[in-house]
Structures are given as structure tokens and as C-alpha cells.
Write a structure and sequence with these properties.
Length: about 550
């Protein structure tokens, strides 16, 4: 029996789609030859949808305490927003725009009857149009073509939403089979479009969620015909027939970032990035955008974003020379660290670590940490979550990486300053166990504190705070409530150093004046003998002040 198009259906859709992409991820990666043969389209689609699914679950959790559930508008809005902030690669960015286009229509859709079916048809059309608008230079034979065919097929269907979704899926399957004849590089490799293959899996999951039935029709992934995989993905790796890498001679870097900016600034940014490189995709709206481009000058692409607004979650991937299907040589050991703020991330990168940059309220998913471990290209990895709330997420990522053959040590860091302390004693030349023990000991010997500004009146372990009060937290607990940042920081430092210490680490947020650090350094020097102080810039989205005492 068909199910209504409501929030529960969106939740089910996310779950089924994530399962489908999880099954097909490696096959989709294997046929990834366009726009760059980097073998990560399936992984990027999975990580993007994982972020979307987390956002939907958060929407349901937010209503759970009241015994209610979100409406359709809230659920599809959460799905689209989650995809936007978690979009990875060219394919993930386009997927985010497809979901955003659907959400724009479904937000006002009825949940049942012909009205829901009509809304779904219009949503699929809007999704295809939005995706074309986001890509600077659309190419046929790609996911864009598959999305358009899905919308065409849905519009020709009759009946309830489940029937429209099934028609869209079947139309996408047919279009996917035709992609090798539309795009020369696909025909040469004997495969279908990888992004389109992922969209077929997504639409199949939507049809299943609304119909209660299981997709069974196989999809052709080679010019020769169908294969017995339900979602329809790859068996012939790119390059197996001697096909040249289409990226040789192209830009050297992939640059992705989220951007807070207005429409006019983004329009100018599109023009500038289009001149800098290729594979430009800019998706989003309402002040928040996801920017993806391939360039030779990664710094110029980031600077363009800074001029347009406020970029964050910046990811830069070096394609390397020669065929990208070949993995770089594995390093013996690497460090992957989660860091709040671009300043701390840059500090980690300078020290040779692979940073995962996050902003408050948007923790990384386990899949994002797994991808960072993969990108470290090392046989052994030290993983620093730097947040007690990420303990289970990091553990899941470490377990997945171990399954893939990487030896991973999860260092129990609870703060960025503990992560810096662990990174400072990291020595790849030591044995794995010795390095793990040394880094764990350095983190454990570092007490950490954070200063934050109260957003509203609340009860704390230190008493009642009012909105605007400065809160001093030591090891995660509020111990001081003060009127300003400087005096509260001095009180926190005195409490921490009362038990002794040799080194104080201060990490300043973007809006904190340098004079604060100078005053705190002077305070430590005058009140606590033989204690050194180091100061770092945390950058945007870091706390106003982080303190570490070793």
C-alpha cells in the first residue's frame, strides 16, 4: 500500500538512500571518469547524504521531547540543509542542489492524494532546473541529463506520489543507460555516468519509501548492457581499456567551502572563479552557499571567497601529477585532527597533520572522519577528536578505517588545546605504540578551559548567569561567571595554575583583541613564576578563548 508523502517518508527515504549508496559506493567510485577520474564520486555522494540524514534525524529529535514529529516542510528543509553543509566533491554539491530544488516545492505540498503527486512532479522538475543553474557549464550525459529525464518521466505518470516516484526512477534508469553515447569519455571507458548512477539509487530509494516495495530493476553500467546490481553501478574500472585520464593537464586542486554571502556577492564570485578554473558549481541560497571549483591557484579561489563573504569548512585536495586513478605512496604514519576554526586548522596543517575543520553546532559525521583518514594516505593514523561529544563518532570512523586496512589509534583528546599538546609530541619515527602512549600522556597532562558568552539566563554549577555574562569552563564545567573576558580569564588561569603548570597555551577567537593575550601573558609572568605562555590565533568559529595548561 502506498505511503503518504510526509516527514516520516522523508526519514525513510534518507535511510534507504544511505543504505543503497553504502552498498554501491565502491562500484560508483570505480566508474568515476568525469569530470575527473579521481574515483570518489560514490564516496562523496554517500558523505553528502549522510549529512542530510543526520539533519533529518536531528529534526525528529527536536520534536521527540514534545511527543510530536516535524512536518513535511521541516523534514525536507532539514534534508536539503544537511546536504548543503555536508556536500563533498562535484557530485555531492550537485546532489545538494537537487535536494534544495525539491525542498523548495515540497515545503508547501499536501501529504496525500493527487496534490502530493503533482507536488512531487513539480519538485523533480525544479530539482533538475536548479542543478543546471548551479553548474557553470552544463554537460549532457551527466547527472544533469539523468535528473531531467526523471522529471520528464514523472510528469508523464498518473496516480499517487509513489507512482510518480517509480516513473522518475525508471526514467532515470533509461537515461543513465544512454549516457555512454552522449559523453565521449564514458563511451571510451565503457561505463555510465557515476553521478547519474548515484541519482538512480537515490530515486529508487524514494520510490521504495513511498510504495513500500523494493527496487528490483538492474541498471546498465557498461555499453554492453545490464548487470545484476539493483542500484546499477560499476564493474569496469576507468582506464582498464587504456582510456586516458581526462584530467591530465587540468587544474591541480579541488577547492570546496561553505560561504556566508549575499546573492550579488555570489554572482560576482561565480564570474571570478569561472575565470580561475573549471568544474565550477555554486549551490545554496538565503545567505549560505556551497562552492566547488577545480583550480591551479587554490589560494586565489579561497581569497575570492573571502572577498565575497565568510568562507569556512575549507577543503583543498591536490589532484597530483599524472593519472589520478593511481594512489599516492602511503606515508608510514599521519595525524588527523578535528579543529574548530581555520586558524587552528592551519596550525595543524603546518605541523603536518590532516585537519578536519568544523564550526560550532555542526560536528563532523563518521564518514567525514573516515574520508580524512583516507586522504592522509598513511598506513598508520593517530586520530584526535578534540571534543568529548565526538568520542563515539571517532570510534566508529576508526573502526571503519581499520576494516580498510589502516591501523588507527584514537587519542582521547577532549579539547583543541589537548590536541595541540598531543601533536607537539608526535614522532613518526617511534613505534606505533610508543607514539600513541606519548600523545595520550601529553593530552592527559593538559588541563583545558574555555571562555564563552552566555546567550540567556541559566543555572550553572557556579550559580545563575545572565545573558551576556562571560562563563569560564574548566574541563567542561562552568566554574566562574564574570563581567568581562579579561578578568574572567585571569580568574580561570589562577585556578588552573594553583595546582602547578609549566606551559600555558592561549587560543584567541577571531573577534578577540591581541591586547587580551598581552594582558594574560603579563598576568601569568607576574603571578606564576617559571610558567611559559604561547599564543595562537584560532580564527573564525573558534571560542573567544581556549586555555591549556600543561
Amino acid at each position: 500500500m502506498p505511503y503518504p508523502l510526509d516527514a516520516a517518508a522523508v526519514r525513510t527515504w534518507c535511510g534507504l538512500a544511505l543504505e543503497a549508496l553504502g552498498r554501491e559506493r565502491e562500484r560508483i567510485d570505480a566508474i568515476n571518469v568525469y569530470p575527473v577520474a579521481d574515483g570518489d564520486t560514490g564516496t562523496n555522494l554517500y558523505l553528502t547524504l549522510e549529512s542530510a540524514a543526520r539533519a533529518v534525524e536531528a529534526a525528529f529529535d527536536g520534536h521527540g521531547s514534545a511527543g510530536t514529529q516535524p512536518d513535511l516542510a521541516a523534514a525536507v528543509g532539514a534534508m536539503a540543509h544537511g546536504a548543503l553543509i555536508g556536500a563533498r566533491g562535484n557530485s555531492g554539491t550537485i546532489l545538494a542542489q537537487l535536494l534544495r530544488g525539491m525542498a523548495q516545492v515540497l515545503a508547501a505540498a499536501p501529504t496525500g492524494g493527487s496534490g502530493a503527486a503533482d507536488a512531487l512532479r513539480r519538485a523533480l522538475r525544479r530539482a533538475a532546473s536548479a542543478a543546471y543553474e548551479a553548474v557553470a557549464h552544463p554537460v549532457e550525459g551527466t547527472v544533469l541529463t539523468v535528473a531531467t529525464a526523471a522529471a520528464d518521466a514523472a510528469e508523464q505518470s498518473a496516480g499517487v506520489a509513489a507512482e510518480a516516484a517509480r516513473a522518475a526512477h525508471q526514467g532515470a534508469v533509461k537515461a543513465l543507460r544512454a549516457t555512454p553515447g552522449q559523453l565521449a569519455v564514458l563511451g571510451q571507458a565503457g561505463v555510465v555516468d557515476a553521478g547519474g548512477c548515484g541519482l538512480v539509487a537515490l530515486l529508487g530509494a524514494l520510490a521504495d519509501a513511498l510504495s513500500g516495495e523494493v527496487t528490483a530493476e538492474p541498471v546498465a553500467v557498461q555499453a554492453g548492457g545490464p548487470v545484476p546490481e539493483a542500484a546499477g553501478c560499476a564493474v569496469t574500472p576507468p582506464g582498464a581499456d587504456g582510456c586516458a585520464d581526462p584530467h591530465v593537464g587540468g587544474p591541480a586542486f579541488e577547492v570546496i567551502y561553505l560561504l556566508e554571502a549575499g546573492d550579488a556577492d555570489v554572482a560576482r564570485l561565480r564570474d571570478r572563479l569561472d575565470r580561475l578554473g573549471d568544474s565550477l558549481v555554486v549551490v545554496g541560497g538565503d545567505g549560505l552557499w556551497n562552492v566547488h571549483v577545480h583550480v591551479d591557484d587554490a589560494g586565489a579561489a579561497v581569497e575570492a571567497g573571502i572577498e565575497a563573504g565568510r568562507p569556512y569548512r575549507i577543503r583543498i585536495t591536490h589532484f597530483g601529477a599524472g593519472p589520478r586513478a593511481k594512489e599516492p605512496a602511503l606515508a608510514p604514519r599521519a595525524v588527523v585532527a578535528v579543529m574548530p576554526g581555520a586558524g587552528l586548522a592551519a596550525l595543524c596543517a603546518d605541523a603536518g597533520a590532516t585537519p578536519v575543520t568544523v564550526r560550532p553546532g555542526e560536528p563532523p559525521a563518521s564518514g567525514e572522519l573516515v574520508q580524512a583518514i583516507r586522504q592522509a594516505h598513511a598506513r598508520e593514523v593517530m586520530l584526535l577528536p578534540n571534543d568529548p561529544e565526538l568520542r563515539h563518532t571517532a570510534a566508529a570512523a576508526a573502526e571503519q578505517a581499520r576494516v580498510e586496512g589502516v591501523r588507527v589509534a584514537l587519542i582521547p583528546t577532549r579539547s583543541a588545546v589537548q590536541g595541540l599538546a598531543a601533536l607537539a609530541v608526535h614522532e613518526p619515527g617511534r613505534s606505533f605504540d610508543q607514539d600513541m602512549v606519548a600523545m595520550t600522556a601529553a593530552a592527559g597532562a593538559t588541563r583545558y578551559a574555555e571562555l564563552a558568552v552566555a546567550e540567556h539566563r541559566a543555572w550553572t554549577m557556579a550559580g545563575v548567569c545572565q545573558a551576556g555574562d562571560v562563563l569560564g569552563l574548566i574541563d567542561g564545567d562552568v566554574v566562574v561567571i564574570g563581567p568581562d573576558l579579561a578578568r574572567t580569564a585571569m580568574t580561570v588561569l589562577d585556578r588552573m595554575l594553583s595546582a602547578g603548570g609549566e606551559l600555558v597555551t592561549l587560543v584567541l577567537g577571531a573577534d578577540v583583541p591581541a591586547s587580551l593575550a598581552e594582558g594574560l601573558e603579563r598576568h601569568v609572568r607576574e603571578r606564576h613564576l617559571a610558567v611559559d605562555t604561547v599564543v595562537y590565533e584560532g580564527g573564525a568559529h573558534a571560542a573567544p578563548l581556549l586555555i591549556g595548561v600543561e
